[in-house]
Design a protein that fits this description.
Layout (H helix, E strand, L loop, with lengths): L4 E3 H8 L3 H9 L9 E3 H7 L9 H13 L12 H42 L2 H21 L7 H12 E7 L4 E5 L4 H7 L17 E6 L2 E3 L9 H5 L2 E3 L3 E3 L3 E4 L12 E14 L2 E7 L13 E6 L3 E6 L9 E7 L5 H8 L6 E8 L12 E6 L3 H14 L5 E7 L8 H10 L3 E7 L10 H16 L7 E6 L1 H13 L7 E5 L2
Parallel strand pairs: 3-9, 16-17, 16-19, 17-18, 19-20
Antiparallel strand pairs: 1-2, 3-4, 5-7, 5-9, 6-8, 10-11, 10-15, 11-14, 12-13, 12-15
Helix pairs in contact: 1-2, 4-12, 5-6, 5-7, 13-14
């Protein structure tokens, strides 16, 4: 039997479910926990169908995370040879320690048998029978304990996971993530949605400096920033230049809100401009490798093209891929910025990015189901929030309702369908309202309320969740008042304006 305690992140990964799903089982009394940790045996009891080779759900989640947001194709690369050898060495040490303990227990059992023989030889007849019974019981129990039995499949899989990926725990925030392949600690953290502090990500600024509390790390990239010797002796490193060899615990600042994200100005370049619908284009910008944009999902930036044409646009991509920035640009004849993007902007042109701004962000620590309502181009910030929620892998359930004023305004329907197909805890519906969402009034307002009531009728438990609404001002005002009218507190209804 294995009584090893593990984090919910590791446990969820072993059985292919989210941390939110595990937390729900704990709340329902279906899974025991100890200070937020679970044992391998309790985990297997809660998920008896878990098999060694069954990574289906995890693979599907990885696929949707990587493909849905234009991130690089995910490669399950092995760590480099030195790191892999060190992880195997750590497991070998653990195996050797266990074998030594078994040998010591066998020696102790032999000594115990000898002592019982001595007592039996000196005891009176009545005591001899009791000692003989004790010896017989001990023999049977030792024999049963030494039977090989069937290995706990999750314990075996966890040993393999420790070779393939290091688990990183962040203090004092409590975030955790896995480090795979050749990623640095910073890259792995951002990919997992953990907003660690950083600047250049190239070893020059020192903003990603953190202290290693426990575990073994390895420097894999050169950095010009000089860490004082006193700090080196305390365990300080640069997260952008080091990887984890074993499971590690680090002490590092994490952005707790928009106030922790600095204002930035970056010259990005156009990678692609692709049509999404007759009047909508996907603008893909790429920042320099050493000047990536720090932002929180749901925020917006000011883009400037040409000499003076600018627009405020929500970032439609995930902070987990901070170098590749996606924007949904609507064709608006007569709008100088829109005309420039559709008619003159081309590959490799420079676009000035300033920001980020806005407080329409994900409240990560909420244990409640998440409901996302996007009106037309409101899907841009909503998509970023969902991408971030997926990278965190903590939400119990997610529901996306995309309401378009016309069919063409639901311009990425396959993304929502893909999420719903790949993730058991994701639900997607698209609704065509058939009227102008930018000017909701009178009868149109009643029609919009009826559409929202249809959502509540379908999902009555929306009242128990957090609601995120984004789109034109008139539409989000109606929707906000509607959900507040259901009794949801303002602290659980969040709105983002998309101009």
């Amino acid at each position: 039997m294995s009584q090893m305690l593990m984090s919910l992140s590791r446990a969820g990964r072993l059985v292919g479910v989210t941390r939110g799903a595990l937390q729900k089982k704990i709340q329902n009394g279906e899974l025991s926990s100890f200070d937020g940790m679970v044992t391998v045996d309790d985990l297997l009891a809660a998920y008896p169908d878990a098999q060694l080779e069954d990574n289906t759900e995890f693979e599907r989640v990885s696929y949707i995370k990587e493909r849905a947001f234009g991130k690089r194709v995910f490669e399950r690369a092995l760590p480099d040879a030195e790191v892999l050898a060190a992880r195997v060495s750590e497991l070998s040490k653990a195996l050797a320690s266990s074998q030594t303990q078994v040998r010591q227990l066998n020696i102790l059992l032999d000594r115990l048998r000898g002592k019982l023989n001595e007592i039996e030889g000196q005891a009176k007849e009545e005591a001899k029978a009791a000692v003989a019974d004790l010896k017989s019981w001990l023999k049977d129990e030792v024999g049963a304990a030494m039977e090989p039995g069937y290995p706990n499949p999750l314990a075996v899989r966890d040993s393999m996971l420790r070779v393939m990926a290091a688990h990183v725990h962040v203090l004092p925030s409590g975030h955790d993530f896995f480090l795979e392949g050749h990623d640095t600690l910073l890259e792995a953290a951002l990919r997992a949605g953990v907003p660690l502090n950083y600047g250049c990500s190239g070893g020059n600024c020192g903003l990603c400096k953190a202290r290693v509390v426990s575990g073994q790390i390895k420097k894999v990239r050169h950095h010009d920033y000089v860490i004082p010797e006193a700090e080196k002796n305390l365990g300080y490193i640069l997260l952008c230049s080091n990887t984890a060899v074993s499971d590690v615990e680090i002490e590092a600042p994490v952005a707790g809100g928009v106030q922790d994200i600095p204002f930035q100005q970056i010259d990005a370049r156009v990678k692609t401009i692709e049509p999404l619908a007759p009047d909508m284009a996907l603008l893909h910008l790429q920042t320099p490798r050493t000047r990536r944009l720090r932002f929180l999902a749901g925020q917006y930036v000011t883009l400037q093209v040409g000499k003076s044409l600018s627009a405020e646009l929500p970032i439609a991509s995930c902070p987990c891929d901070d170098r590749n920035l996606l924007f949904h640009v609507r064709r608006m004849p007569g709008n100088l910025f829109s005309d420039y993007v559709f008619n003159r902007l081309k590959h490799n042109d420079v676009v000035d990015v300033e920001g980020p701004q806005g407080e329409f962000i994900l409240h990560e620590k909420s244990p409640r189901p998440l409901y996302f309502i996007a009106f037309d181009a409101g899907f841009a910030p909503i998509g970023s929030l969902i991408a971030h929620a997926l990278s965190l892998d903590t939400a119990e359930a997610m529901h996306l309702y995309w309401i378009g004023s016309q069919a063409d305004n639901i311009y990425l329907p396959n993304v929502g369908r893909a999420w719903a197909d790949a993730l058991d805890n994701f639900h997607y519906s698209s609704l065509v309202a058939g009227y102008d969402l930018s000017a909701v009034s009178g009868r149109r307002m009643e029609m919009l309320r009826a559409t929202l009531q249809g959502i509540v009728d379908e999902r009555p438990d929306v009242k128990l969740g957090d609601v995120y609404i984004a789109g034109p001002e008139s539409a989000i005002e109606v929707a906000e008042q509607f959900f507040l009218g259901l009794g949801l507190p303002k602290s659980r209804v969040f709105v983002g304006l998309v101009k």
